[in-house]
Amino acid sequence: MPQKQIHLAVGTGNILGASPYAWLDPGVDPTDYTDIHAVMRYAQTAERGNFDFIFLGDFLAQTQRSEAHSPNQTLEPTVVATAIALATQRIGVVNTVSATFKEPYNIARVLKSLDVISGGRIGWNAVTTSSPQAAANFGRTIEDRDTRYARANEVIQLVQALWGSWQEDAWIGDQDARRFSDLSKIAPVNLQGDYVASRGPLEIPPSKQGQPVMAHAGASPYSHALAGRYADILFSEVFTIDEARRQREAVRSVAESAGRNPDGIKFFPGVMPTVATTHVQALTRRGTLVEPDIVQQVHHLGRLLGLPLGPGDLDGPLSTDQLSIARAHPGDPRSAKALEVAREGWTVREVLHHAVIDYHPSPIGSPEVVADHIQEWFEASAADGFLVIPGVLAEGLNSFVDGVIPILQQRGLFRTEYEGETLRENLDVDRQYGLHRRPRPR
Ligand SMILES: Cc1cc2nc3c(=O)[nH]c(=O)nc-3n(C[C@H](O)[C@H](O)[C@H](O)COP(=O)(O)O)c2cc1C
Question: Is the link from the previous residue into 201 a cis peptide, with omega within 30 of 0?
Answer without folding.
Answer: yes
